[in-house]
Design goal:
Length: about 160
Amino acid sequence: MTDLPYRPNVGALLFNRQGMVLVARRTDMEGAGGPPDQGVWQCPQGGIDEGEDPQTAVLRELHEEIGTNAAEIIGTYPEWLSYDLPAHLIGKALGGRYRGQTQKWFALRFTGQDSDIRLDTDLPAEFDMWKWVRLEQLPQLNVGIKKDIYTRLAAYFARYAVAA
């Protein structure tokens, strides 16, 4: 496992005008398609293309995953945060080429309307539902293996969790 590299990735904490953060429920994990209190939730994130800078990648990922790039970057986490895949996913997830991901996280202010968020623009859809939550709730959601990352992000980006 330690011979495999980490996949470069970006993540987006998208804050609305009330200071709430967007989370979306993954379609490829248990609980998808069920009641809203089930499933695995995450913030938009995705891989960095060859030669792409992280700022461009995070806006592209927003558009691909939630159908909008009506956002402006308002903050950046100072370090790259990495996580390892569980052992049973090594060689299967992420094309089988990575041990996990190393992520550059951004805080963004959503400048659009809720109707601008569309989960059906990239098929198959990665998410089946989305919602706004208070930032401090983020680590308490079922966020799978990323709980530690979301805990760090919630503490660091708390200054953006206010009405704009």
